[in-house]
Amino acid sequence: MTSLPLPVEPPPPLFQDLRVEPEEARSILRPQKDERYGFGFALSPYRGCGHGCRYCYVREYPNALHKPEDWGGWVAPKLNAPELLWSQRHRLHDARVFMASATDPYQPLERQYRLSRRCLEVLLLCPTTEVIVHTRSPLVLQDLDLLKAFGDRLSVGFSIPTDDDTVRQAVEPHAPAIPSRWAAMERLAAAGIQVTLGVAPLMAVHDAKAFARRAKVSGASNAWVGGLRLLKDDPFYKLLADHRWLKVLDPDYVEGIRQAFREAFPTRRRTRPERPGKIEVLPPSPIHQPGLFDRVG
User: Fold this and answer.
1) What pLDDT, in 10s, does the model give residues 17-32?
2) What is the pLDDT of residue 276?
3) Mean pLDDT of the chain, nearest integer
4) Which of 154, 229, 245, 276 is deepest in the core (most CB within 10 A)?
5) CA–CA distance from 203 to each of 62, 164, 246, 272 (Å)?
C-alpha cells in the first residue's frame, strides 16, 4: 500500500472551537464479539467525537487528558490509522469490521482528515471482509461511490434516537438534524446500499408508529431500539428530568417503542441460505442494547 501524505494544515475555521489533537495510534483493530452481528473487530479512526452527544457512554472511559464534561470539545485523529490497518489486513480474512464503536467515523473533522475514507479504501482491498459503518451524519454521502464498490459486503447503520428534532437539539446539539439523516438514508438505499436504523440510545419519541413507518419508507432494511446507559451521577439525568423525559428509562416505554418497530419490520423466515459474503442483519433485540455498546477500546 502506498502511504498517503498526512494532513498537516491547521483545522479550518469550522473546527476552531474543537481541540484537535492528532496522534500516532499504537493499534487500530480491537477484537470484539457481538450477539447481533458476530463481527470480529471494532475500528475507530478517531478518539473523541465532535458531535459531543450529551448522553454518550464513551465519556466515562479513563483519559489522562480529558474529563467527562470535556466530551465533544476535543478529537484525536489517528493519523496512521490507514497504515496500521493495512499492516493488520491479514487478520481480516472472513472477519467483520464495525466502524466505529467509540466515535462517529463521519463526524465533521472527517471533511479534513479523511481517515474513515482511507480506512475504507484498505477494507475494500480485503475481499472476504464484511464492513458495518455506523454514523449519524449525512457526511457519509461524500463516500457514496466507495461504499457502493463494496457491493453486498457492506451496510450502513444510521443512529436516529428520536423522531423529534427539538429533542435532538437538546441531547445532540452538535449532531446533524434528523431530517438530514432521513434524506441521507434515502440516498444510500436508492444507491443500492443496505441501510439499517439504530434507535439508540432511545430518547423521547413523539409518535412511535409514525417513526417506524418513516424508517421503512426511508429505505431501512431493518431497525433496532437500544436503551440508554447512564453514568454514575450522570448530569444527563437532570437534563431528562428538566424536560420531563424520564420515561425513556422506563422499561415499559422502551418496550412500547420496540413493539412499534417490530410491527414495521416483522421477522422474516429465511427460505434459502444467505449468499456468501452477505451481511446478515438480525431482527431488533427485545431485551437489551447490543453488546458492542458495552465496552470501548
Assistant:
1) 788 899 999 999 999 8
2) 39
3) 85
4) 154
5) 26, 9, 9, 37
First to last CA, the chain: 26
What's the pLDDT tens digit per position in 66-90? Answer: 777 777 778 999 999 999 999 999 9
**Angle value at C-alpha 55, between 85 and 285, nearest 5 degrees:** 75
Beta bridge partners of 75: 20, 48
Distance CA 214, CA 182 (A): 8
d(CA 116, CA 205): 31
Angle formed at CA 87 by CA 86 and CA 89, multiple of 5 degrees: 60
Cα–Cα distance for residue pair 66/156, rounded to 1 Å: 30
Cβ-count burial 11-36 (b if 16+ within 10 Å, e if not): beeebeebebeeeebeebbbebebeb
C-alpha cell at 183: 434524506
All structural domains of the chain, each given as residue ranges with its CATH number in brackets, are 17-266+285-290 (3.80.30.30)
Cell of 251: 422499561
Instruction: Read off the pTM.
Output: 0.82
Q: What angle do helix axes 251-264 and 208-217 make, rounded to 10 degrees?
A: 40
pLDDT above 90: percentage of residues in the chain: 68
Residue 43's DSSP bridge partners are: 29
Q: Check: CB of residue 172 under 8 Å from CB of residue 53.
A: yes
CA distances (Å), 124 to each of 85, 97, 148, 194, in order?
A: 12, 12, 10, 16
Residue 275 has pLDDT above 80, yes or no: no
pLDDT at 282 over 50: no
Largest CA distance in the chain: 54
Q: Residue 4: what residue type?
A: L
